[in-house]
Structure formats: C-alpha cells, structure tokens
Amino acid sequence: MNDSLENLQDYFKQLRLTETSHELPNLLRKAEQTSWTYREFVQEIVLFELKKREEKSIDKRMKWAKFPYVKTLKEFDLTEQTSLSQRQLSQLEELNWMEEQFNLILLGPPGSGKTHLSISLGIEAIQKGFQVMFVTMGELINLLKTREFTRKSQVLLNRIESSDLVIIDDLMYMAMDQREANLFFHLINRLYERSSIILTSNKSPNEWGELLGDEGITTAILDRLLHRVEIIHLNEDSYRMKHRKSMF
Ligand code: ADP
Ligand code: MG
C-alpha cells in the first residue's frame, strides 16, 4: 500500500487516465491543504479527468471543422448589424433549430458578417457536443467531383456527411454545370433530415436557379433546403467597409 507517487501515476496511466496522472501531485497537495474528505477527493479526481477529456474532444472537433478563422458570437457586434435583434441572436445561440433539424440561410452582401456568424454558430455547436464541418461551395464541388479517385476527398466528404451541422459558405458564388448541380443535389439529399445546414450567399434563393442551370434540379434542391428553414437577411451596411484600413 505504500507505492511511490511515480508508481501511482503510472497506474493512472495504465488505466488511460493520463491527464489525472500528470495532475496527481497537485491534486494530492490540494487535498491535504484544504482537508478534502475522501469523497471530495475522489470527486475532484474524476471531475478533473472528465473536464480534460471534454476540452480535448472540443479541440479535436474544432480542428475537424476546418473553420477558415475562429470568431465567436461574443465578437459579433449587433450595433454593426441592425438587421438582427439580440433576441434572435440568443435564439440562434440556443441551437434549438439544430435539434429540430432546421437549416439556416444567411443572405447579405459581401462583408455583412455571413461567414463570421456561421463560424460563431459552428463553435457554439461544437461546445454543445455536436460535430461540425465548414466548407466553401467551391471546395465542396471540387470534393464531390474528385470523390471517386481521391482518398482525401472521400475522407472529407464522409466527415461532411456524418456531421450534425454542415456550413456551406458562399453558395452560388459560381455557376454550376449540370453534373455539378447533380452532385450537389445528391449531397443535399443525403444530409436532408439528418443534419442541419447553414448556407451563406449574396444571392437570394430566387436567383439560385440561374446558377444551377437545370430547373428540375433547382426545384429539388430548394425543396429540401427550404423545407425547414430560417432565412436571415443581413444588412447592406458593410462592417468590412466601415472598418477598412485606409492608406490615407
Ligand atoms: P461576409 O461573409 O458576409 O462577406 P464576413 O463574415 O467575412 O463577411 O465579415 C467580414 C469581416 O467583418 C470579418 O472579419 C468579420 O469578423 C467582420 N464583421 C462583419 N460583421 C461583423 C459584426 N456585426 N460584428 C463584428 N465583426 C463583424
Ligand atoms: Mg463570407
């Protein structure tokens, strides 16, 4: 019963409680200093390991999400974006819409905060335990077209298809040919009713038809995307323009 501290730490490692193993000297010191009861001591050890695991899992999912940058909802300034109320933002933050498998469409001109808002909501989702993936429309089409012969595309698309939330940024930025529109439709079909989608676009859905070309496919895609959807129009007021750095 009188093993050295190193041995004890090693036992924790063997049980795959690596984080606790490292922290053990500190935990023991604190237990002595604050005279924890046996029960408190056990609780502190278990909670420490759980907290570390949670942090690691969030880190892992943040990496997986492939956000182009990390900006939170706290950094989203509503005085700069008057088309959204605090109440609406709080509702989005609660993520009930995700649990009900609603999609979000964020519309607005360049610089109006679409990408920022989508990333922030993605971060919220990750913190609540969801798996999220961010992809631009251009990247997505490229992945779909190379799926059959590129291992990397397969891996990323599998990840997209198993995500609870898929963010597709800058939809309809580019015109698609028939094959691309078809591939996109099949992806949306696979995600439909399984995950939530956030789409950002500077064109409104009634203009998407021109870019998708085929009317039948456009209707089928819109059907699924708009079945359960919240559409948010962000203001003209461009944050980027107002805050742009000037040389003069
Ligand atoms: P969009 O995707 O609509 O073109 P972005 O989301 O990329 O625009 O926003 C451009 C830049 O402006 C980003 O750095 C973003 O963080 C910032 N920004 C835009 N709107 C806001 C806002 N309401 N509050 C804080 N930063 C904002
Ligand atoms: Mg953007």
TrEMBL record:
<keyword id="KW-0547">Nucleotide-binding</keyword>
<dbReference type="GO" id="GO:0005524">
    <property type="term" value="F:ATP binding"/>
</dbReference>
<protein>
    <submittedName>
        <fullName>ATP-binding protein</fullName>
    </submittedName>
</protein>
<comment type="similarity">
    <text>Belongs to the IS21/IS1162 putative ATP-binding protein family.</text>
</comment>
<dbReference type="InterPro" id="IPR028350">
    <property type="entry name" value="DNAC/IstB-like"/>
</dbReference>
<feature type="domain" description="AAA+ ATPase">
    <location>
        <begin position="100"/>
        <end position="233"/>
    </location>
</feature>
<dbReference type="InterPro" id="IPR047661">
    <property type="entry name" value="IstB"/>
</dbReference>
<dbReference type="GO" id="GO:0006260">
    <property type="term" value="P:DNA replication"/>
</dbReference>
<dbReference type="InterPro" id="IPR003593">
    <property type="entry name" value="AAA+_ATPase"/>
</dbReference>
<dbReference type="Pfam" id="PF01695">
    <property type="entry name" value="IstB_IS21"/>
</dbReference>
<dbReference type="InterPro" id="IPR002611">
    <property type="entry name" value="IstB_ATP-bd"/>
</dbReference>
<dbReference type="InterPro" id="IPR027417">
    <property type="entry name" value="P-loop_NTPase"/>
</dbReference>
<keyword id="KW-0067">ATP-binding</keyword>
